[in-house]
Amino acid sequence: MDEKHLVAKAQAGDFEAFAKLIEANKQKIYALVRRLTANTEDAEDILQDSFLKAIDKIDQFRGEASFSTWLSSIALNEARALYARKKQFDLKPIEDYLPGAGSHGDDQQDSIRLFDWRDPQALLESDELRRMVNGAVDKLPYKYREAFVLRYVEELSVKEVARLTKQTVASTKSRILRARLALRDMLSSTFEERYGKQVS
Q1: What is the pLDDT of residues 97-122, one digit of tens each?
Q2: Gap between the Cα atoms of 192 and 138, Å rounded
Q3: Which run of H or of E encompasses 2?
Q4: Would you call 37 exposed, middle or buried from its count of C-beta atoms within 10 A (0-12, 13-18, 19+)?
Q5: For 62-98, b where at least 16 C-beta lie within 10 A, e where not — what string?
Q6: Which of 84, 113, 136, 153 has its CA 20 to 30 A from that of 147?
Q7: How many Å apart are CA 36 and CA 69, to the nearest integer?
Q8: What is the four-CA torsion angle of 188, 112, 172, 118, rounded to 10 degrees?
Q9: Which CATH code fits 3-84?
């Protein structure tokens, strides 16, 4: 039975159909929220709350996007609500990451800060680098982590990220850029120490 028929049956009160929809998407949604929370307990709570919310709101699903996307949107809202209750720092303004910003005449430090990875997905293909990047991503404020994960881990387009996070395309691009710049800043000295040169 395809998704459309399962949704129709679930909206008519067939819990078994709803359970099949959940089972088909459970691993994907868990992987997403686990990546966003970097915490198994929070991820499991968000997953459970998301499914309960989906049960309550199944009649509101209009099929304008896939059920998986709709469920992802609910999970993102639940994750956002959780982190809204936690104190979150913000990233530095983009200008602070530009060449020369905060420099005190230390050319070597500038060269490290100017490390550029060009393509985050390429870094994520290496096991060692992926662990390093993931550790840094976990330190980002939630809204930037969310944008980065959706763009480079889930491999969504900027427009899709904007739609899921209910942000404008311009705001989404800004969050992705700031996340990349912050990660570059965090990882540059580590890469310099390990590889003895800039990695691009």
Answers
A1: 555 555 444 444 433 343 445 566 66
A2: 21
A3: none
A4: buried
A5: eeeeebeebbbbbbbbbbbebbeeeeeeebeeeeebe
A6: 113
A7: 16
A8: -80
A9: 1.10.1740.10
